[in-house]
Specification:
Length: 193
């Protein structure tokens, strides 16, 4: 069970990451508007197993379904007590995607993912580009497909966003990395390019 004080601390850590990393480094050029508009819901899951987490995920999808985007544009489902291993987290995503299919949410909502040990395929754990998806906790980010399509249509270079993000994190000094990502292993330092 996540008590109120712990939930508030976890939410504050996620808010700091969202503001310092996602907005501060402009990793998502579409995030500023919903954050500034108070349209980002941060929900802390108490799950310690797959069944409970799937139940929480379904509840958050239903919550988004019941709210107009002007009220809740997107949800960050934070998982502090389950899936600390990135490979386990990645395997769970198959179950999460199956749940979206089962309940008719595929094509309506999309999952983006963040994890303290996030690692893109084909990279080494210490590669700087992994920082773009590293967060203080495992997170399932529920996005509205229609909003994504609208935002991408209005962006001058949507295909260039990942490369720009990689350049931003590669330019960080070790001190900046420690300040922005205090939850990483203290010995972590991506290789110089």
């Amino acid at each position: 069970m996540v008590d109120h004080q712990r939930r508030d601390r976890i939410t504050a850590e996620v808010d700091r990451w969202l503001n310092a990393v996602v907005l501060g480094l402009n990793l998502c050029p579409f995030a500023r508007k919903p954050v500034d508009g108070g349209q980002v819901r941060v929900s802390v899951s108490t799950a310690r197993g797959a069944e409970a987490l799937l139940s929480d995920l379904l509840s958050e999808l239903q919550h988004l379904d019941s709210q107009p985007p002007a009220t809740t544009e997107t949800t960050l489902l934070v998982i502090p007590d389950y899936l600390p291993d990135f490979l386990d987290f990645n395997q769970f995503l198959d179950l999460a995607e199956a749940l979206l299919e089962q309940y008719g949410y595929a094509g309506v909502y999309q999952l983006a993912t963040f994890h303290p040990h996030y690692q893109f395929a084909g990279t080494d754990a210490g590669d700087a580009e992994n920082l773009t998806n590293r967060a203080p906790y495992p997170i399932l980010h529920l996005l509205r497909e229609a909003s994504i399509e609208g935002a991408l249509a209005g962006h001058p270079d949507p295909e260039g966003i990942p490369a720009a993000n990689i350049r931003r994190v590669e330019a960080l000094t070790p001190q900046q990395i420690r300040a922005l990502f205090p939850y990483l292993d203290p010995a972590y330092c991506p290789p110089s390019r």
